[in-house]
Design a protein that fits this description.
Low-confidence stretches: none
Number of helices: 13
Distance between the termini: 21 Å
Mean pLDDT: 92
Helix content: 25-40%
Radius of gyration: 21 Å
Oligomer: single chain
Number of strands: 21
Length: about 450
Amino acid sequence: MNTDIAIVGAGPAGIFTAVEMLRRQSRRKITIIEKGKPVEERRCPKAVTNKCVNCQPYCAITTGFSGAGAFSDGKLSLSYEVGGELPTLIGAKTAQETIRYTDGIYLEFGADEHIEGLEETDEVKQIRTRAIRAGLKLVSCPIRHLGTERAHRLYEDIEHWLTEKGVEILFETECTGLLIENGRCRGVTVSDGHREFELYADETVVATGRRGADWLEGMCTAYGVDHVPSTVDIGVRVEVRSEVMETVNRALYESKLIGYPPPFKNKVRTFCQNPGGFVAQENYDNDLAVVNGHSYKELKSENTNLAILCSHNFSVPFNQPIAYAQKVGELTNMLANGQILVQRFGDILDGKRTWDRELSRSNVVPTLPDAVAGDITSAMPYRAMTNIINFIKAMDHVVPGFAAYETLLYSPELKFYSNRIKMDERFNTNVAGLHCLGDSSGWTRGLMMSSVMGVLMGRLLA
């Protein structure tokens, strides 16, 4: 089987590679290989069962057209300062210009025109002042919020637009290897569950998303693609009553705060804040359950949730940060019998586990009802746990009440970005004809910057 451009993964990076090629009037044949299903066929049984049933062979929330994008809260960060390290590769000016262009494409497909956190109000200045006093940095970033339900519809429209324009999408088809001949990538080997075949291509784009970071690392090792271990994020998802976050939610919608708490001075940051949102479970390969958060446009809870992530970097002799984070997640899952663990912040400080009956007495009602009450500290590494505790205490000076006894911490929240592919500014690897994009490449974090990387790749391939 032959094509001109083979794209592995139908997440934002792969999608926008194809979108931009078509917008540039490219006549090259594009084939997308996607392990999951079309957007319109993706269903999470938990909506009916109220409990994660560990879908096989993959989780419908993380796998399928648009990747985790269709089931995420759908926040588009409109500043080059947020979303990974891509600006260091292509330049801040190019990154910001491409964000504006890519945002225009999202608007064409129905994104909400309203932008959150655009104005530097007195409230924002007061929040920044409190952050400075607490030793934290507030990063200003306008947000275009799609909402989980609108993101689903938007990506479905993009999917249909691509197929109408002649893009071939091979759903429920898994990439099993690369075709490397004389130092050049000639395509990929794929399997649809019934047969395995070779797909030859002039150029191959691998964009497997955060969920595919471990898979890509294995491919790089097997085929000699230059890469270096980078950062892995380990943390928790925090949930409080929305009254506690009311000022920040109103002024910023999403507060992006960064700190380096003592005694270790590791980077700790907030991520993916969801006013009126819901804590959610995602399942990765090897039955690894991790926690995330969603925020809908219409449906709202009484709580706000956000991630607090601690960045870990390793050097010699250890160079497997993804495996390290997975072990932390596996140990936490073991304590929760394969589910997500939840604990009150006050219980952590008191050195005790949380019990279900204690959760039932709190003002904060968990929005992940099947989370298991227990002891996060029995699985979380000491360094990460200490960083998280001290960061939450600092946050309490910015948002009074954030470090309340009943504040909920869910674990594990893991971000597998650690495999960074060595590439030039045209996204060329050391293997000719092979390009790696999006979160799995280690260069981006989140919907917008992954989409930007796809747009730039599309221009180069058009």
